[in-house]
Every structure is written in C-alpha cells, then in structure tokens.
Write a structure and sequence with these properties.
Blueprint: H1 2-30, H2 40-55, E1 58-63, E2 74-76, H3 82-91, E3 95-100, H4 109-115, E4 119-121, H5 126-141, E5 145-148, H6 166-174, E6 178-184, H7 186-189, E7 200-206, H8 220-239
Parallel strand pairs: 1-7, 2-5, 2-6, 3-4, 3-5
Antiparallel strand pairs: 6-7
C-alpha cells in the first residue's frame, strides 16, 4: 500500500514541480532572462528533480563527482525509469537533455523544456535527429552540458543495451569530453510496469571523461564502444552486472 502511495506522491510532485519550476522558466523567458549558470534555466531542472525525489523518499548518492566538474560535457547514461531522469536533472549542473519530441507537446512541460534549452529529437526522422544534435552542439559551445541516453528508450534490466550512434556524432562534432555514467538502484525503487515506488538510493557513477579532441566522424563507433565498455566495466565491478559485448544499435 505504501509503495502505491509513494507512486502517487511521485506523480503528483512531478506535476506540481513542472508547474512551479517549469512555470518559472516560462516567466523568465518572458522577461528576457539569459540562460547561464545559476540562472532560472539552470536551477529549475535541479529543483524539479530533487523536489520530486524527496517527496517520494528517494535519495541520490554520487560517486566520482570530480568527473562532472566544469562545463561543456556530454553526459552519457543508461536509462531505466523516470526516476533516473529526475536524478540526473537534480544533480547535473547547467544541463540540457536531448529528449523525445513528444514531451515537448505536453502542456506546460513542453514550453518549459523549450525555454530551459532542452532539445527535442525525432528519433524516427534521421535528418531531423541530426538537426537536434546541431542544436545541442550550439548549447555546448555556449558552455552548457548535454545529457543523452544512447540506448534510446527505457530498459527493463541493468545490463546495457546497444547504443545509438547519434550521441557520439554529437560528441565528435562538439569536440568536448564524454562523461560515461552508470545509474544503479532504479529498478529496486520503481519497477517498470508497476504502480509502485519504494524508498531507496539511486547511485550515480561518474566515470573518467573520454576526450574527443581531434576525433572525426569516422571515429564515432570507436568512441561509442569505449563509452559502452567503461559503463559495462563499472556495472560489472561494482554490482556484478554483466552486459553483452558491445554492438551498435
């Protein structure tokens, strides 16, 4: 029963947080507030994520925080649930997510995401998808970091799934470091397909950045492989989780 109550609290807090913190982005845009570190567009996603997790009794523990310092990174993470989105939004500084375009059509949420500089992507439209990565490159060159989920959609288990190439084309195009991340604890907290949320801790593992300076388009697969293997090694060494050998999506 309590797991269902926490599920409702999480949904409610996401909705309320979207209105409060998303609304602040819309208002800030109306007043011409610039997007920069410490601005409304930087703080609102973090407050939104932390507020929702706190309401549901979910904690976040970060590992390797020295690897997330600075600006202009591409954070690459595994994706299992809404709660890992909340965790990343709540703890990554001046972050812009590449997110599916359908979310940008949701009332309040969509306009707020646009004002906050999030980047819509039409996965089924290859040309439009690469246009989204061009937009992401502009955000990075302005100093922001970008968060991507190379598996594309949410998974049902911790072993990594094949990676899409787009995020690594972006990294090569932007010539900024890739910071691999492994997220653990999500499945125990919010099992997919169930209206349940359990109290617990999400672990965010930031791994050593992978430089991309000097890489070209032809290096995208090698970069994806290196990122995959770093995340898979963390999953195996920390939690005994074995992922399949690397294979492109």
């Amino acid at each position: 029963m309590m797991a269902f109550v926490r599920f409702l609290l999480l949904q409610l807090s996401v909705a309320v947080g979207t209105i409060l913190f998303g609304g602040s982005c819309i208002v800030a845009a109306l007043f011409g507030v610039r997007d920069r570190p410490g601005s409304t567009y930087d703080l609102a996603p973090r407050r939104w994520g932390r507020f929702a997790l706190w309401m549901a009794g979910i904690r976040v523990q970060e590992h390797g925080v020295e690897h997330k310092q600075g600006t202009g990174h591409i954070f690459v993470a595994n994706h299992l649930s809404l709660v890992d989105v909340l965790a990343l939004a709540g703890h990554l500084p001046w972050i812009k997510f590449v997110a599916k375009a359908e979310l940008f059509r949701v009332p309040i949420l969509g306009p707020a995401m646009r004002r906050a500089g999030m980047i819509p992507i039409e996965r089924a439209n290859r040309k439009a998808a690469f246009g989204a990565y061009t937009t992401a490159t502009e955000r990075i060159r302005a100093g922001a970091s970008v968060g991507v989920y190379p598996e594309g959609t949410r998974g049902r288990a911790y072993p990594l799934r094949p990676f899409k190439k787009g995020p690594f084309v972006l990294a090569v195009q932007a010539q900024v470091p890739v910071v691999p991340m492994f997220v653990y604890g999500v499945l125990e907290i919010a099992p997919r397909g169930r209206f349940q949320v359990h109290p617990g801790t999400i672990h965010l593992h930031y791994l050593p950045p992978i430089p991309t300076a000097g890489l070209t388009y032809d290096d995208r697969d090698a970069l994806a492989r290196r990122t995959y293997e770093a995340m898979a090694t963390c999953a195996r060494d920390r939690y005994g989780i074995v992922s399949p050998p690397y294979g492109p999506g």
